[in-house]
Amino acid sequence: MLLDLRRATTFPCLDDLLAAFQADGVWPACRAFIVTNDVQYEMARQLQSTLGPQTTINEIFQDETRAMEWLVAFSARTFSIRE
Predict the structure, then answer these.
(1) Rounded distance, CA 44 to CA 38, Å?
(2) Per the domain annotation, does 17 fall within a domain?
(3) Residue of 50, 63, 60 whose CA lies nearest to 21
(4) Rounded distance, CA 66 to CA 43, Å?
């Protein structure tokens, strides 16, 4: 899952974000957060820390291409393990 935070200037409280994730019922195997500033990085870090127990891995990127390459590589690795 790619979570692009680059255009975000404010964030809802962490509890509201967590409720949104829980309402989805979707806990992907990995998440890539894309950020451009310290505020976005801190929010991604908080989400990474809070959502960590339900996921395999989270990573924070400033470059969308690197984030997508990471997600594709991770998906290929987990797909081959399941076969």
Answers:
(1) 10
(2) no
(3) 50
(4) 20
